[in-house]
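We modelled the chain as a single entity of 157 amino acids. Its sequence is:
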Amino acid sequence: MVEVTISLLVKGHPPTQLLLGWKKTGLGHGKYAGLGGKVEANETRQVAAIRECHEEAGVIVSPDDLEYLGQLTFLFPSKPEWNERAHVFLVRKWNGEPVETREMRPAWFALDQIPYDEMWDDYRYWLPRALQGRSVTARFVCTPDNETVHTVESEVR
């Protein structure tokens, strides 16, 4: 199973704004998502999260500023090569201003204006809890269209 990271950059404590990137390439293109991507063979999940934040939005994150929230498992029965385990981080501090890259166009959203209809369906289940800094652990099985959640096999806790 592919290991990936999702980093949620937030402003405020408690958060008042969330940075999402409009995915321009690859899996999930045309959707908003947190910053992230594959954990390479020679990386820890923390190193991958830091690298992806820089590659996708031009920001520099220190390892001490990654708050690990948990893992999400995604199963795509009609496209098993997409199956992945995502390690979710909350990031409250970084260096630099987010900029558009070849992979993503970043945008800030107030928490009451998160564009869930333009995101992967699973975000509805776990993102509100993550934005509270609470742990998230769940297993999602998608429908044959690979777009919507069919079942949540374990509760977000």
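As a brief sanity check on the tokenised model: The domain at 2-154 is CATH 3.90.79.10 (Nucleoside Triphosphate Pyrophosphohydrolase). The chain has one domain: 2-154.
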